[in-house]
Design brief:
By secondary structure, this protein is mainly alpha-helical. Helix content is 54%, strand content 3%. It has six helices and two strands.
Amino acid sequence: MENHCSCGTRLVEGALFCHKCGKPTREIVAVEEPEPEPAETPGETEAEPAALPRVPDSIGNLAAAPAGPDIHLRNSLTLRVAMMGAGFQLLAGALLSVGGPFLGQVAPLLAGGFACYLFQRRGGFRLTVLEGARLGWLTGLMCFVLAVILITIVMTAASSDSFMDTVRQSGGAGMQGEAVKALERLQSEPSQLLLLIPYQFLMLTLLASIGGALGAKLLSRD
């Protein structure tokens, strides 16, 4: 290193700058220091997603449990199953009524259990008793809607004298005769519908709920 600066001043030994003009006596290379990593504090670590509950499968290994069923009429599977259960109730009621009017009341129970069977088979879910009762209630609700539609059609047809004459002439024995008498009573006293419709709603939804709960209980044993 030269002992004199370019300004003519004698440099002090080992000096980095001229003490008179401030000129560097040598090239200074800046050393970049790595930035310190921020220290992790408890509670700031990224939370891991909660693991699904695990249940033993058929061979004893643990497997993730499937999500629970979503039972409401906005669910397409629930709606389809409830409508199929209502159709089943109508068919079963017609067949069972041959053995007597009281035997036909078993149809909503069967419809609730049938709906649980379809839901578990198509959705792959195991229903609890409460879930089965809820599915049965929705099935009973669809049965009630179907019953109201049928009652409306029958009452509209019964208002025609020609229709009633045709029904009477076709035979008035047994159940057909009882049906004709019921239509005549409804014609003469339409206020009976105010009792018939709430009765149908309570009977169908209650019996179907019981059938759904029993169906879920029986199917859980398989």
